[in-house]
Design goal:
With 628 residues, this protein is mainly beta. The protein is built from eight helices and 53 strands. The protein has five domains: 79 residues, Immunoglobulin-like; 76 residues, Immunoglobulin-like, CATH 2.60.40; 63 residues, Sandwich (Immunoglobulin-like), CATH 2.60.40.1080; 78 residues, Immunoglobulin-like, CATH 2.60.40; 255 residues, Ribonuclease Z/Hydroxyacylglutathione hydrolase-like (Metallo-beta-lactamase, Chain A). 13% of the residues lie in helices and 41% in strands. It starts with a helix and ends with a strand.
């Protein structure tokens, strides 16, 4: 063969080989089938206790075996054939997988939504907290609506060292302590508190408290002790294992329910039962009392049936909640209650002991039948010689059987006799003093008459020639005379038995005799009575000044018989703010002029209205009594 022929044969041979190889490769590719996982039900909706099959297969491999697994076995179950059963309401995912012949994993996911046929309405329990002994078991009995959900509840213990619980609701007490067990189904749940006790230690515990009743505030002073008094509900609940904890142990301490104050401050006590019922007490500790000062009289005179109050001040003054106690040495003679009110019961003597912490003070009490503190505003008679006779001042002071006069009324005989007869009816045998406020006839007129008939220990007057005849009687009766302007400055004075008398306007002298009137502040049993003489309108500035010094009074005698030209301004009226007003005046009545400066709520007593011989202000007890 020539060379050309040989090349031709080679080309034909190569071509045939290529054609044969292509046909062979095509045949092989055509023979091999591709496997593919097909899921026709990517979402499955079922109800509880309903079953559905997941539609899944492997394309090109009818004999392929699929694997089904779920991520929520409490919601659904799925078998090897892909049948899904709804167990409870919820969502789940089923993973379908297959491994090919060449070890390649194919998978798909099917979302399963389970709905309850009848939705769960509620979960509750047949009892509240559970108290069981260590080592015992208890079957929880939840109440569910509807009942068919019972087998699908989930039980969980928050502390399995103390309590464990089975999927059937059986509680096992493992160790002493307390924890909670939760019972749930989807979004519905409840819980029960479980207390595990050791009956060998507390064999009698049977009833658990439901609440603690206690005062939520406590006030003490340093070193004071108080007991925490609390009650439990129900009344027969166990009182064992009540835990009392303190927020700040530097302020108080507690031993056997007794709180002791250690230092000044505020803190909180928490009371807690073994089943976690608790409440708080807010505690304030105040400074220790350094001293207790009796501000009322330390020697007291009382009539049988009358009362008086012991007043006091603590040092420091800002002490709050300090316990002050009172005790009578002779409660048959004088009794005393918790607020310091003494009551005279029978004639005799008693000692009242006042205690605060380690401090003790005493008050002596003498109970009799003639211990009165009274001021008598004696009514002037209607004299033919003086149309103003009912406007004079004749004021009798009475203190524990002692008597004195401030002014004596008119000079006319009929007026003198009226005042004298009144004193006789009151069994006045002696006057400790007569004080004349100023040299006007309706104030000093009866002084000589009284001194000539009743023993008088002293005469208080200002120097004035018009009083010469009064001085003559004093000299003849050997009555000592004290000149006010020489012996007293404003605010000074003297005592008259239980009454403390301060004098004002002591230095004023001049032609306007009303303007020279001496003013008297009488203090007794904690009361203030202000007698203002005949101070006229020209004395308003001085009255305003004195009113600021004196402050509130209980009883006020209107200046200058309450005439329009009196010295009572609206400023003085508001400053003095009396509880009662006395007017020694026959003619003026009503709330005009000076009277308009007082509140309409303040009672005003007029001599004109008196049906008796005097308006009598009784200051003997804890309440002012006025008779007219």
């Amino acid at each position: 063969m020539n060379k050309k022929t040989i090349n031709y044969v080679i080309y034909i041979t190569i071509g045939l080989i290529v054609i044969f190889a292509s046909l062979l490769l095509f045949s092989i590719i055509k023979e091999k089938k591709v496997e593919e996982l097909i899921l026709n039900t990517p979402i499955v909706n079922i109800e509880t206790q309903e079953s559905k099959k997941i539609d899944a297969y492997v394309k090109n491999n009818e004999e392929a075996i699929l694997d089904y697994k779920t991520n929520a076995r409490d919601v659904i179950s799925v078998d090897k054939d892909g049948n899904v059963l709804g167990l409870k309401e919820g969502n789940a995912i089923v993973r379908i997988s297959y491994t090919t012949k060449d070890n390649k994993e194919l998978f798909k996911e099917c979302n399963v939504v389970v709905k309850d046929k009848i939705p769960l309405q509620s979960i509750s329990l047949t009892k509240g907290d559970l108290l069981i002994s260590k080592g015992s078991v208890y079957q929880l009995e939840p109440i569910i609506e509807p009942p068919e959900f019972n087998k699908r509840l989930t039980y969980e213990s928050l502390n399995e060292d103390i309590v464990s619980v089975s999927d059937k609701g059986i509680v096992t007490a493992n160790n002493v302590g307390n924890t909670s067990v939760n019972i749930s189904y989807n979004d519905k749940s409840t819980s029960i508190k479980v207390y595990v006790i050791d009956e060998s230690i507390n064999p009698h515990i049977t009833i658990m408290p439901t609440s603690i009743k206690v005062s939520n505030k406590m006030s003490l002073i340093v070193d004071e002790e108080k007991k925490i008094n609390y009650t439990l509900e129900p009344a027969d609940a166990d009182r064992e294992n009540i835990i009392m904890s303190i927020k700040d142990n530097n302020i108080i301490k507690i031993e056997n329910d007794i709180v002791k104050a250690l230092s000044i401050g505020q803190t909180t006590i928490n009371l807690k039962t073994y089943n976690d019922i608790n409440t708080n007490i807010d505690v304030i500790v105040n400074p220790k009392v350094n001293d207790l000062k009796i501000t009322s009289k330390e020697e007291l005179k009382l009539n049988v049936g009358s009362t008086s109050i012991i007043t006091y001040e603590l040092d420091p003054k800002d002490v709050v909640g300090a316990k002050v106690s009172f005790e009578s040495s002779n409660p048959n003679v004088a009794s005393i209650n918790d607020d310091g009110t003494i009551t005279g019961l029978s004639i005799g003597e008693a000692t009242i002991t006042i205690k605060c912490s380690s401090i003790t003070k005493t008050v002596k009490v003498n109970v009799g039948n003639n211990y009165y503190q009274k001021i008598h505003f004696i009514k002037q008679t209607i004299s033919n010689k003086s149309q103003d006779s009912e406007a004079g001042d004749a004021i009798l002071l009475e203190s524990n059987g002692h008597f004195a006069m401030i002014d004596t009324g008119y000079k006319e005989k009929v007026d003198n006799e009226f005042v004298y007869n009144y004193l006789q009816k009151k069994n006045v045998k002696k006057l400790d003093f007569i004080l004349i406020t100023h040299a006007h006839n309706d104030h000093y007129g009866g002084a000589s008459y009284l001194m000539s008939r009743i023993k008088t220990d002293r005469l208080y007057i200002k120097s004035d020639n018009e009083l010469a005849w009064v001085l003559d009687m004093a000299i003849s009766k050997k009555v000592p005379v004290t000149y006010i302007e020489k012996s007293f400055k404003d605010g000074q004075g003297f005592t008259f038995d239980d009454m403390n008398i301060k004098l004002y306007n002591t230095q004023e002298n001049g032609r306007n005799k009303n303007l020279t009137s001496v003013l008297e502040l009488i203090e007794v049993n904690g009361y203030k009575v202000f007698l203002t003489g005949d101070l006229p309108r020209d004395g308003i500035d001085y009255m305003n000044k004195v009113s600021k010094i004196i402050g509130k009074v209980n009883v006020l005698k209107m200046p200058h018989h309450g005439y329009f030209e009196c010295a009572m301004s609206i400023t003085s009226a508001k400053t003095l703010n009396p509880d009662y007003v006395i007017v020694t005046n026959k003619f003026t009545k009503g709330r005009t002029g000076c009277y308009a400066n007082f509140s309409s709520k303040i009672p005003i007593y007029y001599n004109k209205d008196s049906t008796k011989s005097a308006i009598v202000v009784d200051l003997s007890s804890d309440k002012i009594r006025i008779s007219k």
